Amino acid sequence: MLAGVVAAGVVLLILRGARRGKPWVLRAVAERISSMAHRMGGRYVLSGGVALNRGFALALGAALGREVDVLPDPQFVGALGAALLARG
Q: Which residues is 46 bridged to in the sheet?
């Protein structure tokens, strides 16, 4: 769910002329996610390909005010979960 909101936000920023890879874009997206994630609390784990971007993980941790864990090989987490579900 958060991924869709974030993707829409990034597309809007780019359409408005933002350059990809700029630190303020990472911070803006991280702040948007943190405003929703604060409601959940608990431990924060970043997965998916975006977790490979260390700058984003740091920006998200700063926006949340706490460390964000990144799993090994985060780009495969969703596929592994889907495989486990399919296996039954």
A: 70
Contact status, residue 34 vs residue 63, Cβ threshold 8 Å: yes
Per-domain residue ranges of the chain: 2-87
| pTM recorded for the entire structure | 0.67
- The pLDDT tens digits for 14-53 are 677 666 666 777 787 788 778 777 777 788 888 888 889 8
In 3D space, the residue among 85, 51, 42, 24 whose CA is nearest the CA of residue 9 turns out to be 24
58 neighbors 82 (Cβ within 8 angstroms) = no
- The burial class, CB within 10 Å (0-12 / 13-18 / 19+), for 23 is exposed
Q: How many CB atoms lie within 10 A of CB 9?
A: 15
